[in-house]
Amino acid sequence: MTYLEIILLALALSVDACVVSFSYGLTFSQNRLKTALLLAGFTGFFQGLMPAIGYNLTSFVKSLIAPYASLIVFTIFVFLGVKFIKEAFETQKTKPCCIGITCLFLIGIATSIDAFSAGISLALYGNHILKPALLITFITFVNSILGFKLGGILKNFPSKWLEIFAGFVLIGLGLKVII
Predict the structure, then answer these.
(1) C-beta of residue 94 within 8 angstroms of C-beta of residue 26
(2) Considering its fold, how many domains does the chain have in total?
(3) Which end of the chain is more exposed for a tag (fewer CB within 10 A), N or C?
(4) Residue 96 CB: number of other CB atoms within 10 A?
């Protein structure tokens, strides 16, 4: 693959992370910089790690994980989406949305499952993995920050409806992979 093709691949892979960050940007009002950096860091890291794993374990990953990848992504996104919607209806909010290590880990995995196949493709094309993985990590990090920032710009709308919308966006991402 050429560098242009790898950049296009990285942009395509980063879309899910950007949308999730946008959803979080809609709902968070405190510690915005820390939250944006955590989301971008986790999504970027996993987006670069998954192709490397797919690349190095091509035959093993393809045969064991590929049949369940859609179900795994669907489950994680629906779980997070329902959580967003549920929290929108809570009258006393203790925490705006899930941003703990467990949620960040799940978001990182959910937004990068499809990157497994990208790693497999890179292996089949005969590419080395280091430069593409670093490029994918960087582009995902930047797009995640941009998505979070855009979500913050649209924050002036009533938060309950934005949280519900963000939840449905996450559920929609989950449905996208199984339909």
Answers:
(1) no
(2) 1
(3) C
(4) 17
CA-angle at 61, arms to 118 and 115, nearest 5°: 25
What does the pLDDT look like over 41-89, one tens digit per residue? Answer: 999 999 999 999 988 887 665 667 667 777 877 887 788 778 778 877 8
Structure tokens at 65: 């994980």
Radius of gyration of the chain, Cα coordinates, nearest whole angstrom: 16
Which tokens go with 170? 């996450």
Cα separation of the two ends of the chain:
28
Q: Give me the tens of pLDDT residue by residue for the chain, a chain 179 residues long.
A: 788 888 888 888 888 888 889 888 888 878 899 999 999 999 999 999 999 998 888 766 566 766 777 787 788 778 877 877 887 787 654 444 678 898 899 999 988 888 887 888 788 777 889 999 999 999 999 999 999 999 888 876 666 776 787 778 778 877 877 87
Cβ-Cβ contacts under 8 Å for 3 (sequence gap 6 or more): 135
Chain-centroid distance of CA 41 in Å reads 11
Q: What is the domain range of residue 27?
A: 3-178
Reading the block at residue 48, the tokens are 């670069």
Contact 41, 145 (CB under 8 A): no
In angstroms, what CA-CA distances link 75 with 47, 71, 116? 18, 6, 17
